[in-house]
Amino acid sequence: MGQRSAFLSKFNENVFKATNLTVQKREKLFRGHDLDSLRENAQAKRAMSLENADVLWKISAEQFQENGITVFFADTAASANKFISEKMGDAKLIVKGKSLTTEEMELRQFLEKEEREVVETDLGEWIIQQRKELPSHFTAPAIHLSAGDVAQMVNRKFGENLPADAHALTAFARRHLREKFRNADAGIIGANAICAKPATVLSVSNEGNVSLSSRLPEKLFIVTGWDRIYDSVEGIEGVQRLLSASATAQEYTSYVDFFRKPLPHQQVFLIVLDNGRKALMESVFSDGARCIRCGACLNICPVYEEVGGHTFGKVYHGGIGALLTEFTGNDRDASAIASYCLRCKTCEPACPMGIPIADLLARLSESHSLPFYLSLPLRMLGRRVGAMRGRQKDQGIGDSPPSSGTHHSSPITHHSSRSVAVFIGCMFRNPLMKRERKGIESTVARFFPDAQILDSGCCGMPHFYKGQLSAAVERLEIIEKMIEPFETVLLPCSSGFAYLRERFGDKIELMSMAMVEKLEKVDSISPVYYHQPCHLKTGPGTKEKAALNQVITFSSWENENRCCGSGGTYFVQHPFVSRKILSRKEPGMDGKFTIVTSCPSCLLQLRRVFGRGRVAHSVSYMLQSATK
Ligand code: SF4
Ligand code: SF4
């Protein structure tokens, strides 16, 4: 789907509503829980099991075989499909539970080519099967559809006259599926987790279809990924609790099925798929192997909620989907999927497995050049900005790191005994930020007169997130030497602050927060709203609003934490998506007001809809208020 159609699709509104509802429910469910220790515990267990996966599989496979379950380790999707097909024999009707691993293998399509009827029995999967679509979410495959869309499909396809009512539609699907369950020759289900000792398969669901698909047919195929092994039941327990809470905001799912040996009338096969999982685990992206496909990162993602999983993904969706696609699918798809990620990091606090998704994608971009249609707008912007600055053509936002001896001001050679430095950053060199830059210089002169201004260009973050990692590292090495003589380094740019704080620790401070103690509270006649930059959604930056509140009385704004869709140069690369995200900030905003933010990139983006006079950088705003 192209950008414009992604922007215009009516299905995206369904995704927006559904994901926002799940996020609200999840926040309510987690309230009062010690989430951090739950996560730390689960992450440690998951990491430990993954590190020992081969040994654990050996133990469990032996026990499964003793219990009468045939275990097949498949290196590729093709070998898994071939094995299943052979063991299926002459089975004609197959009932199938929801399984992303089988989507990755295109198992249903493979078996259909053999003239077998394969019926998806999870309601969401059944709906998209009828519509000949791929799932658009890890746990809610038909999240892009409303009850009206489903009613239309059922009425047209099955000659019914059902209303757009979830109960009526579910009852119809149940009636339709009951007969399939009764007559099925074989069942296929996925497994959420495998316990090594005692050898046990665990499959969670909400509709009871897994129990019916697995227990009625004579042949049962359980398909799972190599990464789904755990050492013990306790190991599984912590992770599964987080899975259901993160995925569907439920304390527990409605059904939990365990399998240890075949029922008397059954043959059971357990297919363990590698297909790139071991390579992921052994790579520099190994953090991504902890993913439990809960979809919490999708529900919170400002891009996903606008464009959905058919645009931002294929079998696997969102930022993590790009990484999983890289290892288990077609890598050309992976780079296009990754290009949709804003690198905003909004997803990271939501991920129960603590996966640094944006950082992994930065690394992934290093090994891919963007498709031509996505890289062209960036190159054009680079030329425009270069021309405006009268510099080299390829200097886009985020200057290239100066090679030794070429940088125009060399703070490294101007060591100072003063202990405070102000690292201005490249965004304030943008001609559109002239006034803000002046505001910073005046602020330094007035409130930090002993500080040394380090007018040294970029912090390297744009290079990092564009995947230019050697340039980013080179930049960090220069900065390390540059800031070494100082006890404190103030940054007016929130993104640069978040990026350098993570790398250099406490000595990096946000300038707006440091200003607070030097000012008196100022009341404004018109409302002042706070816009939280995405890079301040984790770490010490989360406290910025509370700090600024000591001098600015902020009016409440329900959209203050919502992403503005800026993402540095994202608005150039995906203008329709960026504009759609930005449009969520607007509703109900009228009259005289000021939006205050510490991110220069957000500031430029917000000015596109609110106008120059209504959006101010935190430092300039506080200086102006103090001067009145
Ligand atoms: S970094 Fe932002 S855009 Fe990228 S996947 Fe995470 S939430 Fe989505
Ligand atoms: S990356 Fe994290 S939040 Fe996203 S699906 Fe995987 S485990 Fe869940």
Report on the architecture of this protein.
It is a single chain. The protein has 628 residues and is α/β, with parallel strands linked by helices. It folds into three domains: 47-282, Rossmann fold (3-Layer(aba) Sandwich); 411-516, Rossmann fold, CATH 3.40.50; 528-627, no CATH class. It is built from 29 helices and 17 strands. The strands form four sheets. A six-stranded parallel beta sheet has the order 1-10-7-4-2-3, with helices on both faces. The chain has a four-stranded mixed beta sheet with strand order 8-5-6-9. Strand 5 and strand 6 (200-205) form a beta hairpin. It starts with a helix and ends with a helix. The model is unreliable at 372-417 (pLDDT under 50). The site of one iron/sulfur cluster has 16 residues, from helix 14.
CATH class of the largest domain: Alpha Beta
Q: What's the structural domain tally?
A: 3
| Helix amount | 40-55%
- What would you report as the Rg, rounded to the nearest angstrom? 27 Å
CATH architect. name of the largest domain: 3-Layer(aba) Sandwich
CATH topology of the largest domain: Rossmann fold
User: For the terminal residues, how far apart are their CA atoms?
Assistant: 52 Å
Mean pLDDT: 87
Q: Name the shape in a single word.
A: elongated
Oligomeric assembly: single chain
Poorly predicted segments? 372-417
- Main sheet specs: 6 strands, parallel
User: Which molecules are bound in this entry?
Assistant: iron/sulfur cluster
Please count the helical segments: 29
Class inferred from helices and paired strands: alpha/beta
What's the β-strand tally?
Answer: 17
Percentage of β-strand residues: 5-15%
- The CATH homologous superfamily of the largest domain is named NagB/RpiA/CoA transferase-like
Strand order of the biggest β-sheet = 1-10-7-4-2-3
